[in-house]
Design goal:
The structure is a single chain. The protein has a two-stranded antiparallel sheet. Helix content is 51%, strand content 2%. The chain starts with 49 loop residues before the first helix and ends with a helix. It has eleven helices and two strands, in the order αααααββαααααα. Helix 9 crosses helix 11. A hairpin with a 4-residue loop joins strand 1 and strand 2. The N terminus is likely disordered. It is globular and about 50 Å long. The chain is mostly helical.
Length: 253
């Protein structure tokens, strides 16, 4: 149970444990290839758009505004994808509330198509010309978060064992398209969460509220930080832990 053991030492390697080292995650071990977890086919998820933002944040109630539109959307998204969330959580030996909590936080907010626009802007800004690089005003394209359950492109690539910057333009475009599909997005996020777990809580240690707090914080703040640095701000993971009762209802409906 959580609380009966201390997290792994801060100096522990941040290199994720090989996925075949001994959990149910071995069943999800990706096939060879740069984008091995991009296996699902089907429509892209653009279910949250500019119109939703207007109704949520701009319009007053008397003109049809709805301040609860975002939270209701998040509830519905988790509920609609609960089967995939539970299946992936079982594969990775993670509590479904962790993946569901990340999904609840990340879905909605910015219109999904705006992420594509931001990526295009960053690609243009970082043209690859070394003389123009000091003049760039945006973050690199790999820092763009994509998919309904937002994950940075560089993190999605790392999750599949590749460096985003070393992908060719066709592969980068394929990764962007891959993350628009909710099933691919969830599969990559689930594997990323499992890899983050290995940093502080290597298998076979269980995942309880304490672990969810730290893993959630790492998803938000990055794998490079030490455990002490992560503990300085665990608000992302704290939210998931406090929201567990509601997440269980959504997963059960």
């Amino acid at each position: 149970m959580a609380g009966q053991h201390q997290p792994g030492p801060t100096g522990q390697s941040a290199v994720a444990q090989n996925i075949d080292d001994g959990t149910l995650a071995r069943t999800a071990s990706p096939a060879p290839g740069p984008l091995a977890l991009c296996t699902a086919t089907g429509p892209s998820d653009f279910s949250w758009g500019y119109g939703d933002v207007v109704v949520w944040k701009v319009l007053p109630k008397w003109l049809g505004g709805d301040p609860d539109r975002l939270s209701n959307y998040k509830d519905r998204w988790v509920r609609d994808h609960r089967a995939a969330i539970k299946r992936l959580s079982l594969q990775y030996n993670l509590p479904p509330e962790l993946l569901a909590g990340v999904a609840w936080i990340e879905t909605g907010g910015k219109p999904y198509t705006s992420k594509l626009d931001l990526y295009r802007l960053r690609r243009f800004d970082h043209s690859g010309d070394p003389l123009l690089e000091p003049m760039t005003i945006t973050k690199k394209p790999g820092f763009t978060s994509m998919g309904p359950v937002a994950i940075q492109l560089r993190r999605a690539a790392e999750t599949m064992g590749v460096d985003f910057d070393r992908l060719n333009e066709k592969e980068k475009s394929e990764l962007v398209d891959c993350l628009q599909n909710a099933d691919n997005d969830l599969a990559i996020v689930a594997r990323h969460l499992w890899q983050l777990k290995q940093i502080d809580f290597p298998d076979p240690l269980p995942v309880g509220p304490l672990e969810i707090q730290i893993i959630g914080a790492r998803y938000n703040r990055g794998r490079e930080l030490s455990l002490q640095q992560i503990r300085l701000n665990t608000s992302y993971g704290d939210f998931i832990v406090k929201f567990i009762p509601r997440l269980r209802v959504l997963l059960a409906e």
